[in-house]
Predict the structure.
Amino acid sequence: QVQLQESGPGLVKPSETLSLTCSVSGDSITIYHWNWIRQTPGKGLEWIGYIYDSGSFSVHPSLKGRVTMSQDTSRNQFSLKLTSLSAADTAVYYCARGRRGFAYALDFWGQGILVTVSS
Amino acid sequence: DIQVTQSPPSLSASVGDRVTITCRTDQSVFNYLNWYQQKPGQAPKLLIYGASNLQNGVPSRFTGSGAGTDFALSINSLQLEDFATYFCQQTYTNPIVFGQGTEVVLK
């Protein structure tokens, strides 16, 4: 069974950088697309981006310039960095697996981590 | 960006009812349309992928239909555990976009 688990800080100050890690068990991160999604009451579910293949990644245009993704295949983890945080980045952040051949549907998700941006 | 419009925002129904939620995109996404169910405090759960394919383990009372720009999720004989929020998602092109969600509440 594939399992994903987000980790990182729950509270970050404005203008700082958020670093989140998703640890994957039951599958190799060298296959499929590995996504980050966030959810706020006001904006609903927002796709942030995904990392795939040998570390290539695709990012939502609205976040381009602020987002970096990376992967550590030895630990089977992938990570998100989001810079220049503001209150608008307060959200629950999820990682999820996207399956090629299944319309890139997100079939396994982490439980989510609440990140609050506040001084 | 492809715009995704989901309706209605909420609906009230009774156990045993059949309900239908619709999702419309402003350009064709072929069959790259997926449906999720989310309960409070939980991550979304995949129900339907590729517009009409039932994810493993999902009850057969859930059906997806449509192609191109118009899609629907139907739930036959609504059960207590089906009261939740439902989202559609287009994955045809980046950025991936989710619908705004439909909350199904008990009448």
